[in-house]
Write a structure and sequence with these properties.
The protein has 358 residues and is an alpha+beta fold. It is 33% helix and 20% strand. The chain is built from eleven helices and 14 strands. It has helices at 6-27, 45-61, 74-77, 80-91, 98-103, 111-119, 140-145, 246-256, 269-275, 299-307, 339-353, and strands at residues 35-36, 42-43, 66-69, 130-138, 150-157, 160-172, 194-201, 206-210, 220-222, 235-237, 263-264, 281-284, 310-313, 334-338. The strands form three sheets. Strands 3-4-5-6-7-8-9 form a seven-stranded mixed sheet, with helices on both faces. Helix 8 (246-256) links the parallel strand 10 (235-237) and strand 11. Helix 1 runs antiparallel to helix 2 (45-61) and helix 8 (246-256) packs across helix 11. The longest helix is centred in the first third of the chain and has 22 residues, at 6-27. The two termini are 35 Å apart. The structure holds adenosine monophosphate (AMP) and magnesium ion. Magnesium ion (MG) is lined by residues 135, 138, 297. Adenosine monophosphate is lined by residues 138-139, 142, 238, 240, 242-243, 266-267, 287-288, 291, 294, 297. Pfam families: Inositol_P (PF00459). Belongs to the inositol monophosphatase superfamily. It catalyses: 3'-phosphoadenylyl sulfate + H2O = adenosine 5'-phosphosulfate + phosphate; adenosine 2',5'-bisphosphate + H2O = AMP + phosphate; adenosine 3',5'-bisphosphate + H2O = AMP + phosphate. Converts adenosine 3'-phosphate 5'-phosphosulfate (PAPS) to adenosine 5'-phosphosulfate (APS) and 3'(2')-phosphoadenosine 5'-phosphate (PAP) to AMP.
């Protein structure tokens, strides 16, 4: 059945916008309520609060949909102080447009309801039905460092990404602003020149609009930059050396004749930045044999880049497969580039990584 996904897109963008109000409040607090997860990665009250608000909006509009979200509610059930801190944020965060807030279902009832909402993000994912993927704060390490981060939401239907939304509070609103080397450090969301929402619906192109606090601002179509000369291309990668092999990416850039140093920034802000032509190529090269990429780290960005004229594959040249569970278990790494040069980039990646060219 054909569908325009208009309601899903509107709810998703407003949900991301509301959650970003909360993350921005936490971003400006020197104490971010950070706790360590089982895998030793950090999580803040902002992650939990944003996840609760997004799931509340989905629950109000699409109660039968499944949800794969990054954070779990278990630690909060045994940590009342942390729960209360999050609840304080959640109960005091709302869009300042009454109709938009009402569309998202309004306020969460109480702290217990909030915990239940956070816990609803435990779907196993898979190839059947409607499943939302949420990363409430992607790039938590960047968020803590004062760099880039993103509030990420995507809808998959039968394993295929149909709607993708990224809220990037610390990126310039201006799609034409070139990427500077400092984009990933010492960033702020202050002033009206920062904060952008990227969105896409399958088959309908990709857009950007200013990240606001009420009704949605007007959007503009975005497209990747046509690369005329590979030597002048700019490529993005993680700030965290443990998330992507920076030595190999430097070799790949050299092989392609790229002379500019890589632009390092946290989160799916990388996907948004190349989709609007501020950068050109995003490389994510495995640093371990066992790590499986998480679907919430890629679903929205994958669609936004492809709808902006890009191609996204792993290092073997296969499309990212969101149908196999909570992780991209069938893929290794990520290569995102304008469709016309993706093959050339893939070849360079495979030569440097010593993979047989397909
Ligand atoms: P980025 O900001 O692009 O470096 O990506 C942040 C995401 O990297 C986090 O949300 C984690 O889920 C993910 N991550 C954690 N460990 C690894 C790893 N070893 N390799 C790749 N990604 C990772
Ligand atoms: Mg993440």
């Amino acid at each position: 059945m054909p569908s325009s996904y208009a309601k899903e897109l509107e709810v998703a963008q407003l949900a991301v916008q509301r959650a970003a109000i909360l993350t921005k409040r936490v971003f400006h607090n020197s104490a971010k309520g950070t706790v360590s997860k089982d895998d030793a990665s950090p999580v803040t009250v902002g992650d939990f609060g944003a996840q609760a608000l997004i799931i509340a909006a989905l629950q109000a509009n699409f109660p039968d949909d499944e949800i794969v979200a990054e954070e779990e509610s278990d630690t909060l059930r045994s940590n009342a102080a942390l729960r209360d801190q999050i609840w304080d944020l959640v109960r005091t965060t709302a869009l300042d447009d009454a109709a938009a807030e009402a569309l998202l279902g309004g306020a969460v009832k109480d702290a217990d309801a909030m915990l239940d909402l956070i816990g609803r993000g435990n779907s196993r994912g898979g190839a059947a039905g409607r499943i939302w993927a949420i990363d409430p704060i992607d790039g938590t390490k960047g968020f803590l460092r004062g760099g880039q981060y993103a509030v990420c939401l995507a809808l998959m239907v039968d394993g295929d990404v149909k709607v993708g939304v990224l809220g990037c509070p610390n990126l310039p609103v201006d799609d034409a602003a070139p990427l500077t080397a400092d984009i990933g450090t010492d960033q702020t969301d202050e002033g009206s020149s920062r904060g952008v929402i990227f969105s896409a619906v399958q088959g309908q192109g990709a857009s950007s609009r200013p990240l606001g606090t009420g009704a949605l601002a007007e959007g503009k179509r975005i497209a990747m930059k046509p690369i005329t000369e590979m030597a002048a291309a700019s490529f993005c990668e993680s700030v965290e050396a443990g998330h992507s092999n920076q030595g190999e990416s430097a070799q790949i850039a050299q092989k392609l004749g790229i002379t500019r140093p890589s632009v390092r920034m946290d989160s799916q802000a990388k996907y948004g930045s190349i989709a609007r032509g501020a950068g050109d190529i995003y490389l994510r090269l495995p640093t371990s044999k066992t790590y499986q990429e998480k679907i919430w780290d890629h679903a929205a960005g994958d669609l936004i880049v492809r709808e902006a004229g890009g191609q996204v594959t792993d290092t073997t040249g296969s499309r990212l497969d969101f149908s196999v569970g909570r992780t991209l278990a069938a893929n290794r790494g990520v290569i995102a580039a304008p469709a016309v040069v993706h093959g050339q980039v893939l070849k360079a990646v495979q030569e440097v990584l010593g993979l047989a060219s397909s």
